[in-house]
Amino acid sequence: MTIIDGKALSAKIKEEVKVEVAQFKEQVGVTPGLAVILVGDDAASATYVNSKHKSCEAAGIYSEVVTKDSSITQEELLALIEDMNNNPKLDGILVQLPLPKHIDTTIVLEAINPLKDVDGFHPYNVGKMVSNLDAFLPATPFGVMRMFEEYNIELSGKNAVVIGSSDIVGKPMASLLTNAKATVTVCNSRTKDLSAHTKAADIVVIAVGVPHLLKADMLKEGAIVIDVGINRLDTGKLTGDADFEDCKEKCSYITPVPGGVGPMTIGMLLKNTLKAAKLRDKRESK
Question: Catalytic residue at 281?
Fold first, then answer.
């Protein structure tokens, strides 16, 4: 059994980005820039945004965090995004989710220039991703694919089960696995007999936010488990959607929580931001 070390891999990716950013600045004299909009005072979101900001600075990427009160109107938020779309210092824009209930998340995400959509949530990028064309990929599924690559895990011809069908993780994860020639089954809260699907799977990716939903008796011997879930128990301890202690002896590879998929997200976001800057330079130099 191999534990997939997302923390170490993320550090490696951040270092790669730092080197590439320095080279890019030297070659074209431009600093890649990322703006994050945080609406409201959700503590978890604020912590995550702060982590993104620090990671940008460490990689040499210009970082701008704009914090707005939860009472902001949708029109005001859209106007802010439009300003950022037109700001030449910014290559990437992302709106930290979730947004307050009075704001339509779909309208807000669609307002971001697809060429600055480093979160990969705009329908333009989603469509290109599904079609297996070059696009900005959502950071978490992108990070999972990078893990497979790093650990030389072959996806072609494998049976993969994705538990969870969210727009942020489940759906894009299924698309990326399909594009990699895996045979993909997507399960959700309405799925009957989840175990029947997982027992046939070579790879299980779980992202539902239910602590310890996935147990060893739901897996076949040698399965690969990628746990995207992060749950805080009453004890304060962080744990995943898979029962790590129960599952680990049955797996060939497994990600821990914390220290697995979580750290990868920011690393891939930095890669997307650098990519956006390079694409902009390419367009402007034509």
Answer: no
Which one of 14, 96, 227, 250 is the catalytic residue? Answer: 96
What are the C-alpha distances in Å from 222 to residues 156, 160, 211? 17, 13, 22
Q: pLDDT digit string (tens) for 233-268?
A: 999 899 999 999 999 999 999 999 999 999 999 999
Give the predicted TM-score (pTM) of the model.
Answer: 0.95
R_g over Cα of the chain? 19
- Please tell me which residue in 91, 117, 119, 243 is annotated as part of the active site: 119
The angle, 0 to 180 degrees and rounded to 10, between the axes of the packed helices 170-179 and 139-150 is 40
User: CA 75 to CA 80: how far, in whole Å?
Assistant: 9
